[in-house]
């Protein structure tokens, strides 16, 4: 098998398909990714408090349990007061960032989100990440001016045909246009993809990595596709845990300064999944600070972990988990190294 120097970023980019297709590279790949993580980010793990404030969505994405056609979850919206309260809890628990995430819910207008962002900024020292799906360029600009620091908008797959097969609302080019609008608006930009989607090829995954690099992302969130039985992809196989770790490690090598979360989906597939991700390039975790009574209905995929816990439970659990791999909670907002 062709030898590859994983410290040579150009060589890695030229051989992505080969690396993804052959497990013989795994040991050197994972070792190098962890060394690069340690060099640029150290052993501190940034904790981002996640507030899933609405599970309403006007989209019909085939893989997602929040799709508007799914009648299974009880729909909810947190009030502005509840959102602010959850943000205050995140700061009290020592998190440097709060992530405001929802389905594409137009109930939360430009003005409402701007008010929430401003109030969080007035009452806390938290960095704010928004993850609200596709909105207008004006909305992005107004929320940035209100104080939002980052925006997370995953493209899920870089293959336009596969994208449009899985997304009956919207199109691939519009998603890419939105990502560039966000960069132009001054956000620290996050995106990412799902690993193991039906009909996804190794070439698609390699192209995902190249698109991460082209976009010069500040954050990359990736996780395995997990089949939700209440979607059109019911019965499909889940994405590979090992392949997701390989994608994570490759992302660390090609974007050494990016923040990479050990996602909840990895923890759902493997009880030590998040710890394994942190040992292969990841440097972020996202403890949930959504009020406990709402969590079970944010059903992106089944069997999601931590839905029966409250924010304080998570704040005790995560440092203990980090200690088992000689890592510790980082301090500060954890802004982009760029």
Keywords:
eight-stranded parallel β-sheet; Aldolase_TIM; single chain; alpha/beta; 42% helix; two-stranded parallel ribbon; metal ion binding; iron-sulfur; TIM Barrel
What is this structure's SSE topology?
Elements (H helix, E strand, L loop, with lengths): L8 H6 L1 H6 L4 H16 L2 E11 L25 H13 L4 E6 L7 H14 L3 E5 L5 H10 L3 E3 L7 H7 L5 H13 L3 E4 L2 E2 L6 H14 L3 E2 L2 E2 L16 H14 L9 H6 L3 H6 L5 E2 L6 H4 L15 H13 L4 E2 L9
Parallel strand pairs: 1-2, 1-9, 1-10, 2-3, 3-4, 4-5, 5-7, 6-8
Helix pairs in contact: 3-10, 4-5, 5-6, 9-10
Written account of the structure:
The protein is of the alpha/beta class and 338 residues long. It has one domain (9-329): Alpha-Beta Barrel (TIM Barrel), CATH 3.20.20. Helices cover 42% and strands 12% of the residues. It has 14 helices and ten strands. Strands 1, 2, 3, 4, 5, 7, 9 and 10 form an eight-stranded parallel sheet that branches. It has a two-stranded parallel sheet with strand order 6-8. The longest helix is centred in the N-terminal third of the chain and has 16 residues, at 26-41.
Average of the residue pLDDT scores: 96
> What's the alpha carbon Rg, rounded to whole Å?
19 Å
Helix content: 40-55%
**Domains counted in the coordinates: how many?**
1
Q: Count the helices. How many?
A: 14
Tell me the CATH architecture: Alpha-Beta Barrel
Question: What is the overall shape?
Answer: globular
N-C termini distance: 36 Å
What do we call the CATH homologous superfamily? Aldolase class I
Going by helix content, strand content and strand pairing, the class is alpha/beta
**How would you sum up the major sheet?**
8 strands, parallel
Under CATH at level 1, the class stands as Alpha Beta
Q: H/E element string?
A: HHHEHEHEHEHHEEHEEHHHEHHE
Number of strands: 10
Q: Could you tell me the strand content as a percent range?
A: 5-15%
* CATH fold-level label: TIM Barrel
The low-confidence runs, each spanning 5 or more residues with pLDDT under 50, are: none
